[in-house]
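lol ok so funny story. i was supposed to be doing the assay writeup but got distracted and ended up predicting the structure for this chain instead. priorities right. anyway since i did it might as well share w the group, maybe its usefull for someone
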Amino acid sequence: MVKFAGAVLFVMADYEIANAMTSQQYQVLQQSLLVILSLSCLVLTVLIYMTLRGGKLGLPWIFFMIGFGAAALGGAIQLLDALKLVISQYDLRMALLIIYSGSMLSILVGLFFYKRGLQ
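and the output, tada:
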């Protein structure tokens, strides 16, 4: 019950933040958080892979690194586009769809290999 109440308060706070910001500011905040979280996950997966040094459980962590790296790349592209730092003369939606789909597919393949390695 406490977790549910915390989740409701988080959603309400997020809603108030969204009302206080313009849509561009909210998009920049959202993409910044995506890049920060995916880069931190990438660093953690690299540290775990360096600890394992290959082996049977090393292969899944390579897929995790690829997935989180692709997510960070997609977030960085969207952040640069939201900040108008890159003049985008092309529609980036298809490229971002491929990047994010590849990221999720890579993480799912990593989970599959990790489960197979534990058996």
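Residues 23-118 form one domain. The mean pLDDT is 83.
back to the writeup now i swear
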